[in-house]
Amino acid sequence: xxxxxxxxxxxxxxxxxxxxxxxxxxxxxxxxxxxxxxxxxxxxxxxxxxxxxxxxxxxxxxxxxxxxxxxxxxxxxxxxxxxxxxxxxxxxxxxxxxxxxxxxxxxxxxxxxxxxxxxxxxxxxxxxxxxxxxxxxxxxxxxxxxxxxxxxxxxxxxxxxxxxxxxxxxxxxxxxxxxxxxxxxxxxxxxxxxxxxxxxxxxxxxxxxxxxxxxxxxxxxxxxxxx
Length: 227
Known about the structure:
This protein is 42% helix and 26% strand. It is built from 10 helices and 11 strands. The protein has helices spanning 31-37, 50-55, 57-65, 85-97, 112-124, 138-144, 182-199, 201-209, 211-215, 219-226; strands spanning 2-3, 6-7, 9-13, 20-25, 43-49, 70-76, 105-110, 130-135, 149-154, 157-164, 169-173. Strand 1 and strand 2 form a beta hairpin.
């Protein structure tokens, strides 16, 4: 679908009955439509962290509510230090108080930490409820939001408690990258470049040729490297 001067791309992760789409856009305007096509219930919990909440949660909530979704937001502490069972318990308490059911949906708006925590809560609450990823960092958009790896740290061991739980969909708004520190962009680029080196020489050449455009947040280039 065309969005402004650019297109929203839709890809598909083929996993049989667990297949799901990845939408790559330049804003949140089609988020509600994407959720509606997933045929999920209208009651949602939006989990984000303190940093992402300042920049993106209002626009994300608006896109959902205008499409008829009921949104309840939970803001957690930013960073790896929050990736633990205490945070998961807080999410459980929040969902129980809202009386969420199996057709309800929990949405991760943030980077890899938010996605991992939220996905683990989704996988284990009521033995599995709908889970949606809205990654806001390049590393999450290119890697951690896809593949279904979710979990938390425990007793100093990273991701030692977790599961494989696929989302219903992934929605990428490449313009969320504009609010990231340069260090975070570089960390994400390392993952993108690794993919190019290992699997696709033409893609690697594309990255090399468009490096300046990437760091100047050219929307069409960001959409291409994310998808």
